[in-house]
Amino acid sequence: MAEEQEETGGSGVASRTFRALVESADRKFARVRDLPAYGRGHAHYFQKVFKAYMRLWKYQQENRSDLVAAGLNRWEIGEIASRIGQLYFNQYMRTSEARFLVEAYVFYEAILRRRYFDGANAKDLGVRFKELRFYARFLLVSLILNRHEMVQLLVERFRAVVDDSKSKFREASFKEWKLVVQEIVRFMEIETAYKSSRPVRYCALFDSHPASRPYVARFHAKKVLKFKNAILTSYHRNEVKFAELTLDTHRMLQFLEWESSGSFYQKQTVESVYPNFPVAPQENGSAVDHSEASGLIDINLAADLIDPTLPPNPRKAVLYRPSVTQLLAVMATICEELPPESVMLIYLSASGKSSQGTVSRMDGPDGSRRSSKGKAVSGSLREQNNSRAENLSNGKAEASDYYSDYLWLGPRSNGGTNILHPGDIIPFTRKPLFLIIDSDNSHAFKAERGEPVALLLSPLRPSFKNASFVNSAIHSGSQFTFFLTSPLQAFCQMVDHNTSDVDTDDYNNAEETLATAFSQWEVILCTSRNLDLVWAQVMLDPFLRRLILRFIFCRSVLLFFSPPGHIEECAPACVPQLPVSVSAGSEVVRSAVLRLANQLNVAGSFHFNNTC
To answer: Is residue 576 reached through a cis peptide bond, with omega within 30 degrees of 0 on the bond before it?
Structure first.
């Protein structure tokens, strides 16, 4: 009897201590979860919460037998590990440090492989919601890491859990979770629609060209800016998204990161990285847990999983459907913290409205125009728009142009809180900016006010050989963003070329043709005497240089693909102008596009007699 009381007493003390540690860690977690996902100065909060969860994890390991005797469930351990994974992911989103994303993946994969949520109380709705949240978070991490095989596995299990929940918890609604399943399925259908042999992230093997590397190394500008911060946001009705990550911001997020040459997440498993964190063996069909000191919470372990030779990723603030005031507040905060001699990239993808009241127009492959307004209205506005476009191209915009044109960053029912005017950007031009506007009203930003900034502006409408793509362009991601992040895939989508039917060698040859062209244009830019300082001061940054090169390609492709008479609205623009030697119709650029079109047997879709 005395021995039983002693065991009960030991279990009781362990349980009370464990619960106290859980409550303490959860309170700290709630504080950091509500911190803004931008700005500096929050690191000490994360250190505190990490230490709290390290203490909790270590305690449950060292006292596992007493805790199990007191009624500890496996799903409770899984929930702690899930919280730690969530912490790492949140820290990645705040800092863009790859090691945090890696750690989040390792934690989530361990939860899945050890089946922490399997066998949980089938009648506990709260536990089921914890399991569903785990799957949704693991899906997001796997998506960003391009672990497509893992995503497919998780989708199958996630769907099964949702279906099981609907049958077991009839009193609860799982419509939102069903929508989450539909979101990730739709996202992956578009993300994997076109063959890709090269990563979206910057890979030195593919994106640093040996022939032009010496010219880049010798390049000298009066002023050189470092790229360290970016703001990414998009809003379109019914745009493709998963959780709070839209397809367009997902592509730009990856584009602005380094690709690890080791690609750890494709080669290593939890067991090879954490030998003391074993997958539970099976006994009678159920997982058995073994308590061993794993050191899993040590945040320094991620150093073994990433390429130490890579520079840090630019810090990115990914904003999901912010109000305009929120966007401007983030811009102000980052501008204030921007280090000297640095440039900030701002990426905005949204629908717009011009001062003349025009709406988005879509052209079919034959050049026929469809508009929600009548032909009479369109005709009466054409002359006004042409005059205004001429003023913009000459930099002669009136002050009213800055506030009569705008982008929609949210539902139109909310009115002014979701309207971003070109003039709203002017105060931030006191700091160097690299601005990408992907909108059907992007050219409203052409007018120069304030300090000169680098501007890449999308076409006013997308161009596709397949007319069905025209009407669903927003629902499959922005064409301009696709060209900037995956140029060959975007090219194939535009000409309706099914990459699954292309021989692997032929596809790789097309990639090499594009890489050779980029290398040639890189040499021209680095040796040009007419390169504007706005571009020259960012040429040494590999991410921004890659953006410029892909813009040159996109501009030329769309110029020659556009039906005659529709070139201006179908082609992107840049401010200030790049050298004429790399203009859309220059021989060195035109010949590269022609060569690529011939390789893929789609030259008949182009109008190579078009002129700029």
So the answer is: yes
